[in-house]
């Protein structure tokens, strides 16, 4: 539900900016935070995935994919903020916000339907007594799933 609430809030706020009831302001703090996120998140994601596989931690592998999505969102956010601050394009920031809202709706639908292929935390497709380190299914993926790749 949080994805849908986020999408609704961001969409309303961005729409208000686009129709002129209020203009998007430039934010140096927002630019710095988005730039730092864009610089750090890919490395964090790259470190989470192998660590999660080695530990057999589905949540860490899944979180690495979510962190990669956050990298993309940071790029969209940064583009909108910089276009507004540097080029004086007040529509760029709310337009970027609508892209983020669309991604939030997509993620919300996938979460609602349970489209993730990894087993929920604590569940595994491994047989009892099998050492996860000796199995190809070290992140508790369902058969045929490529979520650990």
TrEMBL record:
Database matches in InterPro entries: Cation_efflux_TM (IPR058533), Cation_efflux_TMD_sf (IPR027469), Tmem163 (IPR026765)
Q: Where in the cell is it found?
A: Cytoplasmic vesicle, Secretory vesicle, Synaptic vesicle membrane; Early endosome membrane
Cation efflux protein transmembrane domain boundaries = 3-110
Q: Which Pfam families match?
A: Cation_efflux
Q: How does it sit in the membrane?
A: Multi-pass membrane protein
Asked if the keyword Transmembrane helix belongs to this entry, the reply reads yes
The alphabetized UniProt keywords are: Cytoplasmic vesicle, Endosome, Membrane, Synapse, Transmembrane, Transmembrane helix, Zinc
Top-level taxon: Bacteria
Q: Where are the transmembrane segments?
A: 30-47, 68-91
So what family is this one in?
A: Belongs to the TMEM163 family.
Protein name per Swiss-Prot or TrEMBL:
Cation efflux protein transmembrane domain-containing protein
